[in-house]
Design goal:
Order of helices and strands: HEEEE
Structural class: alpha+beta
Helix content: 25-40%
Number of helices: 1
Distance between the termini: 64 Å
Strand order of the largest sheet: 1-2-3-4
Largest sheet: 4 strands, antiparallel
């Protein structure tokens, strides 16, 4: 009698089912990880803007009106990792600007995570609860 080598159809289908279950668990977990990672980068950038605003206040006796380059700006560029997931903006302020609120508005796949904001008093707010905590 000749022994055959290889896999049976049942064995192959069991492997495919196991891979399907692992993918069904792994892909959403990875997506949540990406959202959390991008939120962390956005929070770091907001804190960088706040730090630069305080430096600007010491030099100019008012807060900057833009994040980017130019007159009255902080000369900061948002990280490229989150440029497709957040837009960053300072709230409009008439000169001399004595307060600021910098906001990271979630766009695209990050939109379900909500917006983040930080003001000159250090108050951190988000559209959903505890986004600054983690």
């Amino acid at each position: 009698m000749k022994l055959s080598r290889g896999f049976t159809l049942i064995e192959l289908m069991i492997v495919v089912a196991i891979i399907g279950v692992l993918a069904a668990i792994g892909i959403p977990a990875y997506d949540r990880y990406i959202v959390r990672s991008n939120r962390s980068i956005a929070k770091q950038f907001l804190l960088t803007v706040a730090n630069k605003q305080e430096q600007y206040m010491l030099d100019a006796r008012q807060y900057a009106v833009t994040i980017g380059a130019g007159a009255g700006g902080l000369n900061l560029t948002p990280p490229s990792e989150v440029s497709t997931r957040y837009t960053f903006a300072l709230a409009a302020c008439a000169a001399p600007c004595s307060t600021y609120t910098v906001t990271a508005t979630a766009i695209g796949p990050q939109e379900t995570d909500g917006d983040l904001s930080l003001d000159n008093l250090g108050q951190k707010t988000s559209e959903f609860a505890d986004k600054w905590a983690n």
